[in-house]
Structures are given as C-alpha cells and as structure tokens.
Amino acid sequence: MNLAQFLAGRLAKGIVVLFAIAVLNFFLIRAAPGDPAQVLAGEAGAADEQLLIQLRERFGLDQPLLTQLWVYLKGYLTFDLGFSYRQQQSVLSLILDRLPATLLLTGAAFLVSLGLGVLMGALAARRAGRWQDSVITTLALVFYATPLFWVALMSQIVFSLKLGLVPNVGYESIGANYTGLARALDIASHLVLPALTLGLFFTALYARMMRASMLEVAGADFVKTARAKGLSPGVISRRHVARNAILPVVTLAGLQAGQLVGGAVLTETVFAWPGIGRLMFDALVQRDYSVLLGVFFISSAMVVGFNILTDLVYRLADPRIEAVS
C-alpha cells in the first residue's frame, strides 16, 4: 500500500468517525437538562408562554428531534455549524475567532511536553540508577500527581505576581497596540505560563514512557550486535535505541493530543485565554446548543486530524508499518 492509499484509507475512516461523533453529540446535548428558550426568556425578563413559543419556533426547537438532526447534519455538510441564539452570530465565525488562540496554546503545550518529556526520559535511561535518574523520575512523579488548577494558580503567584517575569492572564497586553515582532513577543510572553501548565502533566507521561521504552530496547539483540561492532555508546543510543524507543511515545502523544483540547478548558479559564475552551464553557452555562455542538465537532475533527498525523509519522518513522500494510 503506497502513501496515497494509506492516507485515503485513514481519511475515509476519519469521516465515518466524525459522522458518528456528530450524531452522538446531538443526542447527548438534547438529553441534557435545561431549556435554552427558558434561559433566553429568563435573561430577557419576560418568561411568558408566548415568548417561549416564539423563541422555539425561531431557533427550530419546536421541530421533531429527527427533523432537528437532519437540519443539523445537512448544515455540517456545507460547513454551516448553526447560529448562536445567545450571541446572535454564526457558530462558525465564533469558533474561527477563538480557534487560533486554542491552536497556539495546545500546539505550544504539545511541543513543549513532547520535547521535554523525550529529553528527560532519554537522559534518565542513559543515567539509569544514578542521581540524574532519581531526580528526573521524582520530578515526573510530581508533575503527574499535581492537579492542573493548583499548578496554574501557583505559577501565577510565583512567576507573575511575585517575580514579575511574565504576564499572569490574557492573550496580549490590552491597549499596547503592538504590531509585527513586538506583538509576537508580547503574545509569546503571555503564552509561557498557560503552555507550561497545560503541558506539565503530559511531560511526565512522555518522560516515564521514554525511559521505560529505552531501557527495554537497550537489551534487544540488534543493540548487542551494535555494541559488538564497536559503535560508541552515544551512536548506539541515538541511532538504534532512541529511534526505536520513541515509537510508542509518538503513538501515545498522538492519542493524547486531543486531550490537550479538553485540558485547555480549565487552563483558558484560569489564565483568561480567549480560546474555544472558554467559549465551550460559556455555551454550556447558557445552554447554547449550537455553539456546544460546533465546538464538540471541531474538537473531534482536531483529534481525528492528530491521529491521522500520528499514523503518518509512525509510518515514516518505522518502515515495517508499510510492509505490514
């Protein structure tokens, strides 16, 4: 199977998965307690029966469930994610406004956690049984066990409020009107704490897996053969051990990349980061079904995309995958 067939197969499976997720999300949201028409009418201060009927008619909530499902699926086929009755704006434009911030946050957290975790795990494996190994494994255990919200609050207190190294909340400095490189640096300074907080837990996972995987591969026959050929420990570690040991880490990273989007809800709330995590939280409180469904669908599409990318990287990193396919 060549690369094009491989990608076509993965994309076809991804479309089927997204369709199933879209249908499941629709019924789960409709099963949740609360009437969005009552929420809107209550906020308007006039929750009479006539207004409720008008609101349900306006947003299609008075239609049979299957009719609502058909309208919802038909809209998704044309990239129409619906209309937010709460914010009086299309869901797609709302998500597109917030998506860059979330992608920046989750992408930075993903790269930091994967890079730092692989380096820590590789160093711990090469220094197995020594003090460096003990320090790294202890740090990984602390990162893994520490609650995300506690890390977020403590990092704000220590690095922002006490030391003044980086801003504590927001996406960029309000009113500064930076442009070009100055704006990029300003956003990067605001990104430091949220990205490190979000990536800390996954750093611990990747470090522990990389260490265990390298120690396992180090005992394989082909590594013993490389030692018998007289290759230096550094070359054996880089070319033979690390390259094979990183494959399960890549698989785990691809599967968990989507969880970063879920974890971003809390991080974006604590750091006032204007991403789709906060948008989803606000929509949940306001019973804004269209926005919730749109965010769920885009988040699911991101997860599917990450998994396809992981499969591609895995195939390129390990030629045996092509042979099996």
List its salient traits:
mainly alpha; two-stranded antiparallel ribbon
Write structural notes for this entry.
This protein is an all-alpha fold and 325 residues long. The chain has 13 helices and two strands, in the order H-H-H-H-E-E-H-H-H-H-H-H-H-H-H. The chain has helices spanning 3-31, 36-44, 49-58, 65-77, 91-126, 131-145, 148-162, 180-217, 221-228, 233-270, 276-285, 289-317, 320-324; strands at residues 83-84, 89-90. Strands 1-2 form a two-stranded antiparallel sheet. Strand 1 and strand 2 form a beta hairpin. Helix 5 runs antiparallel to helix 6. The longest helix is centred in the middle third of the chain and has 38 residues, at 180-217. The mean pLDDT is 81.
**Which band does the percent of strand residues land in?**
under 5%
Q: What structural category characterises the helix and strand content?
A: mainly alpha
How do the strands line up in the largest sheet? 1-2
> Would you list the SSEs in sequence order as H and E?
HHHHEEHHHHHHHHH
Shape: globular
Number of DSSP-assigned strands? 2
Binned, the helix content reads over 70%
| Residue runs with pLDDT of under 50 for 5 or more positions | none
State the helix count: 13
> What distance lies between the first and last C-alpha atoms, to the nearest angstrom?
6 Å
State mean pLDDT (0 to 100 scale).
81
Q: Rounded to an integer, what's the Rg over CA atoms?
A: 24 Å
**Main sheet: strands, sense, barrel:** 2 strands, antiparallel
Summarize the topology.
Layout (H helix, E strand, L loop, with lengths): L2 H29 L4 H9 L4 H10 L6 H13 L5 E2 L4 E2 H36 L4 H15 L2 H15 L17 H38 L3 H8 L4 H38 L5 H10 L3 H29 L2 H5 L1
Antiparallel strand pairs: 1-2
Helix pairs in contact: 1-12, 2-3, 5-6, 5-8, 5-10, 5-12, 6-8, 7-8, 8-10, 9-10, 10-11, 10-12, 11-12
